[in-house]
Write a structure and sequence with these properties.
The protein has one domain: 2-Layer Sandwich (Alpha-Beta Plaits), CATH 3.30.70.80. It is built from five helices and nine strands, in the order H-E-E-E-E-H-H-E-E-H-E-E-H-E. Strands 5, 6, 7, 8 and 9 form a five-stranded antiparallel β-sheet that branches. A hairpin with a 2-residue loop joins strand 7 and strand 8.
């Protein structure tokens, strides 16, 4: 038990740059990608509350600096891309799965699957905000990845 406490204190000391924000740990140091700063410097006035912070950053970088800078940000952030499509999990009203899947497909998305209130898809980066604004979309987040 004492060993665990010592390990915990050392870990907290070494990661002192972390703070609690939006119910998860994020770094106080913004990520810089070839002059594009993401994270704390996103325009909160235009950020969509239904989008995870990383997806808001990706969308804003895409809008302001183009697809290549957005791809750089995605790579450093661990977001999965296929061409200009980003993989997301969309929390939805399950009763509206059919209509939402049609809307997402019409916006250029590729549905990968669904389970209960979740729909996983690759969607064009430029449509993230439009998809988030759909009435039956509750939230758009990154897929959870396993830790090794």
């Amino acid at each position: 038990m004492l060993l665990f406490i010592i390990y915990f204190l050392v870990s907290v000391t070494l990661t002192g740059c972390l703070t609690l924000s939006d119910e998860k740990f994020v770094s106080d140091i913004p990520v810089t990608i070839s002059g594009v700063v993401a994270g704390d410097d996103i325009d909160k006035a235009t950020a969509n509350p239904k989008l995870d912070p990383s997806l808001n950053s990706l969308f804003q970088i895409y809008q302001s600096a183009g697809i290549e800078k957005a791809k750089e940000y995605a790579k450093t952030s661990g977001l999965r891309l296929e061409e200009s499509l980003v993989q997301v999990v969309i929390l939805i009203n399950p009763e509206e799965y059919e209509s939402l899947s049609i809307s997402i497909t019409n916006l250029g998305g590729k549905i990968q699957g669904n389970y209960e209130d979740r729909l996983q898809a690759f969607v064009p980066i430029g449509t993230l905000k439009a998809i988030a604004e759909l009435e039956d979309v509750l939230r758009i987040r990154e897929p959870q990845r396993p830790f090794y």
